[in-house]
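Quick entry, no commentary yet.
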Amino acid sequence: MKKKEMMMILGVVVIAAVIFIAVQFMNTQKNKDVVRVIYKSDTVLEFDPNKDAEYWFDGSYGKLMVEVKEGQWRVTNEECPNHVCSSTGWVSADSYLPIICLPNEISVELK
């Protein structure tokens, strides 16, 4: 093989290795997502969005539940006048949007 061909093969191998490492890093970062629930200005809970669960909270106006399922989370069963926070629907790290319940002074956001 000529020197030029060896350099080209080496270049392709280096580019493939960089792409592989970048993909692995991105997958690792995605699995480390943490969602936090904030009441007033205090973090009251941090949870892994990849573990299904239900969490109940007492807010300033009443109770609300954060449901976590298959890497997504939503607010449901909340006690507040307009139910705006539950109409936000399911949120995930890919389509991130904070969920804010103003009457209860609770927000749910990706850390």
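second:
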Amino acid sequence: MTGFNFSDLPWRAKGSYIAHIFKAAFKQHHKWMKPIFTPMLDDESVIFDIGGHSGQYAKLLARLAKRGRVYSFEPSAYSRSILNFAIKVNGFENIDVIPQGLGDAPGTMTLSTPIKSYGTFKYGLAHLGERAINEAGHQEEVALTTIDDFATEAGLKRLDFIKMDVEGWEYRILLGGTKTIQRYRPIMMIELVGQQLSRAGDSLEEAWALLQSWGYHQEVFIDAQTLSPSETPLEGDSFWLPD
């Protein structure tokens, strides 16, 4: 299976896929984050959702930027089929699904999606870079572009917010967005985990240093409505705000 076809799935994976489709279309995760996102965005914000997955963040952000645009980057054919369905069922017209990954240079790479022992996809853990030893998984060749190239080709005039969760390829994506990020100074929510970054030969400290060199500082969750600055590199989801 090089792309995604429902009929190719084992029977148990078919049931899992249907459950994924239902959750993506009819449930809204991350609602508790709305009070944090709201002051960061306006009605016309332009947003990059990097690692679109099932569209939970894309839906939430698109509702906050009703006259803006959400570009949801998702190279996985499995995830993208779920994402497209969720967008269609909910009638969103301000979300564009981009069937590419992002990196530090355009090209192609192998995307690995772990598979459980009974055949269902751990599609939230799809990643570029080296596979874990003895990791069973589905692999597909995917196209990559860069934030800078995409911004130029799309003719972007603004970029207000970036959400990024790509299981370890974050540093490479940041490198490929140097010009655009420094030009537009978007607020960013990025998941950074040292073990995941190491798959690409990168580290948490490198990502931290790069973002700080651009004049950004890290803020982490205190509660559902409060962020607090961090003076040392912290793993997990956090916000990066321009100084």
